[in-house]
Amino acid sequence: MATLAREKIPAHLPDKLAISLWLWNWLTDTGPGESFHDIEKSFKDLVDRGFNAIRIDAMLGWIYDAQFRRRGPVEIGRIAEPGYANYGPGLTTKGGVFVDVHERIVELFRLARTYDVYVALTTWQYQEGHSTTLIKDSAIRKELYDVPLNERLMFVARQYEALLNDLKKEGLTDRIAYLEIHNEVDYVKVCERPDQLRALMESAMAYLQERFPEILICSDRNSGARDRYGFDYEKARRFTEEFAANDQLIDHHLYAFGVQGELFDKAGLFFPAGDNDEIDDKMNDLEKNNRFLRQLLKAGYEPWDSFKNHFEYKSVWRKLMYFYENLDIDKYDHWMFMNYPSHEPLMKNYWRNSIQHLHDYARQRNLPLVCDEGYIFWPPIHSQFEVSAVGKDFHEFIVDQMIKHEYWGIMVCTYAAPGLPLWEKEADFLRKINRRILTT
Asked: What is the widest separation between alpha-carbon atoms in the chain?
């Protein structure tokens, strides 16, 4: 199957990318016994499972200070005390390790060259509750958050400039598949008013495009083309209208929520974050009055009033971390399997029509097309739903739709990475589906 706008992709890059999402964990989960403790083994396992690309947090604020000087060793923090963050994908970091992040990212790129892997660069720097939260030193976090909202994307662009210049000195920039100005730029605090976002991201991207014309630079956006009935064309149209004029590829995410969204709704967990007192009041009310939530919790669960004291930071993920730690996973999986059939047609309709719409938009602009996150939401690590025959069916369905619609980069699943169930338990499935991505 052809790749849309192949002529816009640098000739040294592959015709297709089979992408594994390594998030920030490639750096933060490198302590003894953690998933990336032996990062060369991670690369070996990546290639063995058929991937040829990774998408990582470039950890820009970990590497460079506000004057774009190298920081040296930084201590890795953690979301919660040991035993209180075991099941949230990406957030199980143990912390307590000092790392020179510049040295580590150069090592990662050298290994990428050794194993013929390409690297998609992004950053979660200003996405609340993500990688910046895991910096132990509060002064570094404050320095990053003190950057005024309307200056943040250009600040990120200048951080990237420093990194790209350092990688260029090492002769490693040819390993870069593409660069996102920020993960889900439509979901982060990088502007004072929503109507300013497009101009700010276009300026930041133009800054990098002028200095690094050999690298594909893009925004990254999370498709909002869904509603409770599946695909919503009007939302899809508005979504594509907001891509940057100078995007060099159309890079998007594709979360359906669907069956897991209904579970969270019934459990009362889809409420706005609010301040700490509001969250406490809401969680205490849910524990007392939401019968569905209580039915999903294991016997002897730790109440919110106690559990909340074990967090290191006031992360937006706290309510879900509490839920996952206290969850009776068999009850969760049973509910998901029993209720998925009623959601399946709408979820597949959303995926199919979103992929078609984004393909049509990318073809109109003659730009390559990438999807590098999805496809339900954020499953507990110990759930069997996504690694089951049901989960593998919808992953194959999505991949086949993307192959049909000439995607350049495809991610089988957000949670196919070291330490996560699909990676650890379904290597043969990943080999099969990645072979399809790269050869069909």
From this structure: 60
Residue 410 dihedral angles phi and psi, to the nearest 5°: -135, 135
| Helix spans in 275-328 (H) | 276-289, 291-296, 304-307, 318-326
Going by C-alpha positions, the residue among 378, 382, 440, 383 that lies closest to residue 413 is 378
| Mean of the per-residue pLDDT values of the chain | 95
Assess if residue 4 is contained within a domain.
no
Which domain CATH number covers 363?
Answer: 3.20.20.80
As a whole number of angstroms, the distance between CA 425 and CA 264 comes to: 26
* Beta-sheet pairing, 230-231 with 226-227: antiparallel
Strand partners for 53: 19, 118
Tokens representing residue 111 in the block: 């290994």
In degrees to the nearest 10, what's the CA dihedral of 30, 34, 39, 45? -160
State yes or no: pLDDT of 226 exceeds 90. Answer: no
Domain with 347 in it: 14-439
pTM listed for this prediction = 0.97
Q: Please give the span between the terminal C-alpha atoms of the chain, in angstroms, as a whole number.
A: 5
Domains in the chain, number: 1
pLDDT of residue 435: 98
Nearest to 349 by CA among 405, 412, 388, 401: 401
Residue matched to tokens 């290994």: 111
